[in-house]
TrEMBL record:
<comment type="function">
    <text>Catalyzes the formation of methylglyoxal from dihydroxyacetone phosphate.</text>
</comment>
<dbReference type="GO" id="GO:0008929">
    <property type="term" value="F:methylglyoxal synthase activity"/>
</dbReference>
<feature type="binding site">
    <location>
        <position position="12"/>
    </location>
    <ligand>
        <name>substrate</name>
    </ligand>
</feature>
<feature type="binding site">
    <location>
        <position position="8"/>
    </location>
    <ligand>
        <name>substrate</name>
    </ligand>
</feature>
<protein>
    <recommendedName>
        <fullName>Methylglyoxal synthase</fullName>
        <ecNumber>4.2.3.3</ecNumber>
    </recommendedName>
</protein>
<keyword id="KW-0456">Lyase</keyword>
<dbReference type="Pfam" id="PF02142">
    <property type="entry name" value="MGS"/>
</dbReference>
<comment type="similarity">
    <text>Belongs to the methylglyoxal synthase family.</text>
</comment>
<feature type="active site" description="Proton donor/acceptor">
    <location>
        <position position="60"/>
    </location>
</feature>
<dbReference type="InterPro" id="IPR004363">
    <property type="entry name" value="Methylgl_synth"/>
</dbReference>
<feature type="binding site">
    <location>
        <position position="87"/>
    </location>
    <ligand>
        <name>substrate</name>
    </ligand>
</feature>
<dbReference type="InterPro" id="IPR011607">
    <property type="entry name" value="MGS-like_dom"/>
</dbReference>
<feature type="binding site">
    <location>
        <begin position="54"/>
        <end position="55"/>
    </location>
    <ligand>
        <name>substrate</name>
    </ligand>
</feature>
<feature type="binding site">
    <location>
        <begin position="34"/>
        <end position="37"/>
    </location>
    <ligand>
        <name>substrate</name>
    </ligand>
</feature>
<dbReference type="GO" id="GO:0019242">
    <property type="term" value="P:methylglyoxal biosynthetic process"/>
</dbReference>
<dbReference type="GO" id="GO:0005829">
    <property type="term" value="C:cytosol"/>
</dbReference>
<dbReference type="InterPro" id="IPR018148">
    <property type="entry name" value="Methylglyoxal_synth_AS"/>
</dbReference>
């Protein structure tokens, strides 16, 4: 599965803890992240991560483009609901695209744990069927 990892600044310690705790699951997947989140997670875990721009510079939109192209299977996005973000429209657009394309989206650690355990059990195999279907429709 292709997984996007994103966290706003105040949530970065949480996503790092999450990545350390679930490294044993994440290592078997293709990982993508916005700039600073990806850098911090790689530094702490050594997981290989494809890094996009930092969020405020367009990283959320780059991940959104992957979703629109059916190139992303899961989004884990630890949002900070208590701090205004200069790129709030990009954040909303990314979450909207997850809903448009039925991409599982966790916006906090409680939901992310459910998703990651589902990944571990193979609950997301339905994504592979959809991906195959979409490829053959092209
Ligand atoms: O702002 C972000 C998501 O909206 C995250 O960007 P960084 O990972 O570059 O901090």
């Amino acid at each position: 599965m292709r997984i996007a990892l994103i966290a706003h600044d105040k949530k970065k310690p949480e996503i790092i803890q999450f990545a350390i705790a679930y490294k044993y699951v994440l290592k078997d997947h293709q990982l993508y992240a916005t700039g600073t989140t990806g850098k911090r997670i790689t530094e702490e875990t050594n997981l290989p991560i494809h890094r996009f721009q930092s969020g405020p510079l367009g990283g959320d939109q780059q991940i959104g483009a992957m979703i629109a192209n059916n190139e992303m299977d899961v989004v884990i996005f630890f949002r900070d609901p208590l701090t205004a973000q200069p790129h709030e429209p990009d954040v909303s657009a990314l979450m909207r695209l997850c809903d448009v394309h039925l991409i599982p989206l966790a916006t906090n650690i409680a939901a992310a744990e459910i998703i990651i355990r589902g990944l571990e059990r193979g609950d997301f195999e339905w994504r592979k069927t959809i991906n195959k279907q979409k490829e053959s429709d092209k």
